[in-house]
Amino acid sequence: MVQPKDRGRKQKRVQTPGGRNVLRIIEAKKGKAHCAECHTALRGVVTGRKAFKFSKTEKRPEALFAGKLCNSCRIKYVEEALKVKTGVKDLNHINITYQKYVTQILNQIEKMEKR
Ligand SMILES: [Zn+2]
Fold first, then answer.
1. Residue 43 lies in a domain
2. Residue 39 in domain
3. For residue 81, how far is its CA from the centre of ligand 1 (angstroms)?
4. How many A from CA of 104 to the centre of ligand 1?
5. How far is the CA of 33 from the centre of ligand 1 (A)?
6. Residues 6+ away with beta carbon under 8 Å from 26
7. What is the domain range of residue 110?
8. Neighbour-count burial of 103, counting CB atoms closer than 10 A to its CB (0-12 exposed, 13-18 middle, 19+ buried)
9. Is 16 a domain residue?
10. Residues above pLDDT 70, as percent of the chain
């Protein structure tokens, strides 16, 4: 009997080496990773079943917010952070969705300056 958790899954009839026809559950394919801001597909990010073969550093690029944001969005946030850093803009006048990333970038800059 099919387990209740598997009832909604896609099934396929497969012939076994012994000659029996058996129903097998097909695992759904995982989609690509998307940017949190503009939802474009991220390049260089491994997803799905093959992901376990790779180490953490091989699964996504090693740039700031890589695997979360696309290049154009990252550049936009860094520019906003630099505006706050230089005093051109106030942190409260930045779009509220940007503020989370901008504060993280500012913290990164502070860490780099301490070294
Ligand atoms: Zn984006």
1. yes
2. yes
3. 16
4. 17
5. 11
6. 9, 10, 11, 12
7. 31-114
8. middle
9. no
10. 100
